Amino acid sequence: MTVSGRPRQADAGTGLVDRYGRVATDLRVSLTDRCNLRCAYCMPAEGLDWLPKPELLTDDEIVRLAGIGVTMLGIREIRFTGGEPLLRRGLAGIIGAVTALEPRPKTMLTTNAIGLERMARQLAESGLDRINISLDTLRPERFSQITRRHRLDDVLAGVHAANAAGLRPVKINTVLLRDVNDDEAPELLDFAVEHGLELRFIEQMPLDAQHAWRRENMVSSEEILAALSKRFTLTPDPAERGGAPAETWLVDGGPAKVGVIASVTRPFCGACDRTRLTADGQIRNCLFARTENDLRTPLRSGASDAEIAELWRTAMWGKLPGHGINDPTFLQPERPMSAIGG
């Protein structure tokens, strides 16, 4: 990838390679910026101004871009995100069309699980392979405090429905908030082990709409592991991590596992294999990127698949070596997580 020791532009026909030799094979597709919760670490109580419908990619446009990624650019895994992807009316159809691509990509969904109880079976029948569910607490009053909604029972019903539909392993994503739910880590792991779920703790990241994130308020991976180790014996998972964001441990010898996504304190940018497509058709080469590359306009202006693929390659070539959170000059991206997609 270098000429005289200097990076060179990726050749046409290659996959999504950046100048540091990383190859993106995992596509995250945001289907909507809308959400039916108002999690305090994500958005203000009054919500946000949603994207106008004409700016959103249509179902067919999403499937076409996914197809370009799979057939021309080496994408092997596609995760559908939001906002809240269950709010996308055409979700099952999109999943069905994407899983019909050749070679068939592995498909996943990240959701808050509200409405999942009635949709889990349909999603599985559409071809969805696996699901991640956001759940920060098992206590109703805390759930209401964090999400500003009284919907814990609906989320738990969705968890059990996903398990019953075979969308396994069902993974639980948890953000611990200092002085809110940071005492609940062992309780959440007990719940996960009991129900055959895989728990992932995620360090709170500077992606809130309010730009109120402060490092001192973040519960670090070291604190999480210390709390878990008081009740469980954790041993490093011998399985190869690859580009997975979570570092995992066996719980009491296994087979149960628990993971920590330590994006802030133990960044894994050097092994990143992800590319992101926003609900309005922008390519982001990093979750924390401050620039985007537009695919929607050329898509709607008659660009060929080959032309769009080359625009996508160019977007990924410019990826920075790391997210820069620990650099004093770091600035949050203008878009919050709900508009970027997880």
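The record above closes out task 2.4. Task 2.5 opens with a second protein, given below.
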Amino acid sequence: MISSLRGTVLHAASDHVVIETGGVGFSVFVPADVAHTARVGEPLQLHTSLIVREDALTLYGFGDRDELEIFGQLLSVTGVGPKSALGVLSHLTVDQIAEAVTGEDDAPFRRVSGIGPKTAKLIVVQLAGKVQPRVASAPAGAPVSAVTDQVAAALIGLGWSEKIATDAAVQTAEDATDAERESVPALLRRALAAMGPGGKRG
């Protein structure tokens, strides 16, 4: 079982990366945020899950172990395969998934491509009691306010996934000046500049 990979990024696409380690290039399917931040020539470490099928061996990789665990739990849900589970993790953070399940809210899952109303409801029902929101979901010291919420909402409106938009808004606010943190337009401009015109949308 390949449980983790660490190496140099040889290629990065919208849904997968190729990592060279020990002279071998491994193709790994990843969530949108990992694909968005991966840079060719730079090191990358992923927690991985190897899915074995009769006709293929497929690697799925994640930035942290919590995502890997949620991926495994999603696969236990009736009707959810690896691609659908990866889709959920491309659009929602671990805490957003846990909050939706805890709140018995299947709407966030229905917004994921490939997840229908029945499957969304099954995710909520079958993961009930198995996932809990973490106490601290944002980076230490990161400001969380109505302004960052509005910036995240604006990014979502521009086509970014909830996960990427939320992470970008929080990270941008953490790096911004006090004045910028109080201004939605200023923080939004900073976020868009950081994400770049060539960013991959979820």
